[in-house]
Amino acid sequence: MEFRLKKGDWIFFIVCLGLGVVAERSFLHGKIGLSYLVFISCFYSVFFWRFRSFPFTNKKLGILMIASIWMLSSSFLLRSNMIFYMLNILVIPVLVLVQLVLVTYPLHNQWHKWPFVQKLFLSAGAAFMYVARFLMHGPKLASRGLNEKTSAILKKILIGVAISFPLLFVIINLLVSADQQFGEILGTLPRWLTGLRIEEEILRTAAIIFYALAIFGLLQVLKKKQPIPEASAEEKAKMSWDSVVSLTVLILLNIVYLLFVVVQFKYFFSQTLQGGYTYAEFARRGFFELLFVTMLNLLIISTFVSFVDMGSKTIKLLVRSLLTLLVFFSGVMLYSAFIRLFIYEEAYGFTFARVLAHSFMIFLLVILIYSCMRIWLEKLSLLRFYIISSIIFYTLVNTVQLDRFVVEQNLQRYKETGKIDIYYLDSLSYDGVEGLVDLYELNPDHPGLKELLQRRKQEALISEDKWNSINLSKRNAEKLLLNLEIN
Q1: What is the pLDDT of residues 419-431, one digit of tens each?
Q2: Rounded to the nearest 10 degrees, how much is the dihedral formed by the CA atoms of 14, 16, 22, 24?
Q3: Which residues contact 443 (CB under 8 A, 6 or more apart)?
Q4: Alpha carbons within 13 A on the beta-carbon side of 236
Q5: Rounded to an integer, what distance in angstroms lies between the CA atom of residue 377 and that of residue 436?
Q6: What is the model's pLDDT at position 465?
Q7: 304: which of 5, 361, 402, 448 lies 20 to 30 Å off by Cα?
Q8: Which residues of the chain have pLDDT under 50?
């Protein structure tokens, strides 16, 4: 099939080159801040202009994902947590790809099924192939408007340039050997080119072209109708598990979990410990294991709900009852893990990782409650809820000031116990720096605090950020440091 581009496609490619320039300026000139939000704004402006007459599908989820992408992009401006900074550099492009394919997917409300996942990979592959064909045929298409005479002259000029290069190399070397002053004049040219940092400019130009081609290829492919892969009848028939086997597995699992829960109620929930463990040691020993088992149980529940062949009403009732019991045991284990982590925090203080783990357990509790509802209500979709709730959860933990919460909890603990790790606060985002300033106002004589703040203040005095690196969290912290009088 012949590769064709209309006039509007060429205009769109020029617009994509502009987006490539914005992307290069946003991502390859220092630390990312305001620039990510600027790029996302420009990108979606171009997207909606290009698809202005396109019949979008899955609009509600598409709007939710755009809101999530905007909030995650704004976190580069508003927050300064390095963990989320590194994660979002990878997560946001994936979310953008999913959102674009989602709203251009021909089938409505079918995004939670396997064909949609296949469509994601097919779209990425089709975009790559489109760009390859564009690069191969682009020069040919660009020269169509030239007459045969002009085209022949251009070809001859290129041949002449190609022949001249080896001749010029030999002649210039002979002339440099013959005249030293001529050689010095030519020697100034490399120094001038070095001053231009030509290697860096070549790399930046390559980056612009890469961004432009990636955006151009993907949006061009999504604008055209693509085949939708579907599971065959044989594959659908295989997606069914025997009820007797499933019941056996569920019974054995519930027996093991019942014994575990009895032990939990015997010595943990009753506030008595055995084996010589302190609360902190016991908490650290079992937290991750319990969290992993809870997540494994969620996978088991969702799999059994989706694939077990429930023939008779008796079998259906038994399977549902055993799954509900599994949800209950999972809830007990989740509560046990939550308490263990809380005890550990009381013993050793709050950290970002521990608070994030607490928030993740709350998210798992919501998932468990919904899974229990799905066991008895067949119309509910587990996968849809898992995906939507995961997007919302990840967006919320980026939006909520977890670092600030950690700082406040550690300051409160300091007021009660006199214990605080100032070097951990310093390792946090700029919310940690604000916490150090608050601590200095509480106790300016805390060991090592004055030296730490003086170093931070010196860094703030020499700090200069370009427009793309603007971060409000950093600016607020630097303002506090510059206004702080350290005696």
Answers
A1: 899 999 999 889 9
A2: -100
A3: 449
A4: 6
A5: 51
A6: 76
A7: 361
A8: 192-194, 196, 234-238, 273
